[in-house]
Amino acid sequence: MTTIRLPLEIEQKLASLSEIQNKSKTEIIKDALEEFFYQQSNEKDSYELGREYFGKFGSGDGSLSTTYKAKLKEKIRAKYNTH
Fold it and tell me: Coil, helix or strand for 62?
């Protein structure tokens, strides 16, 4: 069993909702927690949310994140060697 203390404003809202829905406060709290747990278990992380977009417009070269400095130097050298 768990006991919680609620701020007066939330306690009043809970009591009002209990009357309107003709449910006990306990039922309303249980339902709210079940919904919260469901949402948490189905929440996707940032990788999952963007997975379909990763690499969508990429070059196909999987080494760019590790070789970008060498590629940048190469382009700079090429620019100055043509003049």
Answer: coil
Angstrom distances, CA of residue 19 to CA of 14, 24, 47: 9, 8, 43
Q: How many CA atoms lie within 13 A of 69 on its CB side?
A: 1
- What is the per-residue pLDDT for 68? 81
Structure tokens at 35: 């919904």
pTM: 0.53
Low pLDDT (below 70) residues in the chain: 55-60, 83
pLDDT at 22: 97
Q: Please count the CA atoms within 13 angstroms of the CA of 54 that sit on its side-chain side.
A: 7
Percent helix, strand and coil across the chain, each rounded to 5?
70, 0, 30
